[in-house]
Amino acid sequence: MLGAVCLLVLLGYAYGCGQPAVPPQLSSRVVGGEDAVAHSWPWQISLQYSRSGSWHHTCGGTLIAPQWVLTAAHCISSSMTYRVVLGKQD
Length: 90
Known about the structure:
Blueprint lengths: L1 H14 L28 E8 L2 E12 L2 E3 L11 E5 L4
């Protein structure tokens, strides 16, 4: 019984996880798109690399814990210097 209660509590907390603060206008087409409302996707990051003294966006990623980002393996090269930018709009 205690296990079932714990499971229900966990599911209740998980239900709101990953919900954007401002719901997007969804459609079946991406063509044209629309700008995201600032801070509506707080877990979205920009992975940037340094070249010639400036930073350039290379890939997106997801903040999965305070010190952990999940991104695609092809976005990373051991010869590059990277930074993670969070909470920026453009």
